[in-house]
Structures are given as C-alpha cells and as structure tokens.
Amino acid sequence: MTVEEHELLELAERLPEALAELESAVEEWSGRRFHGTADEGRVVATVDALGSLLDLEIHVLSRRRLDGASLGEAVVAAVGAAEEAAARAKDEMMHGLRLGSLPSLGELLGGARRDFERRSGFRA
C-alpha cells in the first residue's frame, strides 16, 4: 500500500467521527444569538446565526433624543453589527472544521466563493 493510499484509508476511517464533529459544531453555532449595538449601547439588535432579526431593544433615551432618521440609522447600525458578529462566528466555525491534514471547510469554501466572485463580478 502506498503512502497516499494509506492516508486515504485513514481519512475514510475518520470520516464518521469528522461528520459527527461537523454536525455538533453546526448545531452549536446555529443555536447561538448575536448582538450589535448603536447609540452608546442604547439600541441593541439580536440576530440568529443566519442573521435573522430576533429582537430589537431601543432605550427610552434614544427614542426621545434621536429624530426619526437618526433612530433609523442607529437601528440599521445595530442590526449590521449583529449580522457581522454572526458572520464572523460562522467563519471561525468553518475554519475550525477540517479532516486530517486537508484544508479546513472554510478554506475550501472561501476559495470557491472568491472564484465565483471573480468570475461573476458579484460579491457573495
């Protein structure tokens, strides 16, 4: 058996364990909540792992002190910060998932995303 065949056999044997680790990591990440703030912490947005807005808290001082446009900007900023936190957590999770000495799932998918963006001109 060649070295490459031996490595492939080891990877195949490790695959069920790696898939269980992947499932566990995704389950843990998908249950998390992420927060973003604006207006000195008086506007707080909470999103799920996919960036869906779950909760929005606006302190009474923000409602009284800010006009409608400024309050809207604060809400957008808080939601954006929460979405960014969720995206960072996803990237961290994806870069931690790997099988043996192969590139991480994040590295593999990141390369595919960059290739798509380069070819299509669209930012994913």
Automatic annotation (TrEMBL):
Protein's name according to its UniProt entry: Uncharacterized protein
Domain of life from the UniProt record: Bacteria
One example GO MF annotation: DNA binding
Pfam families tied to this protein: YbaB_DNA_bd (PF02575)
Species of provenance: Planomonospora parontospora
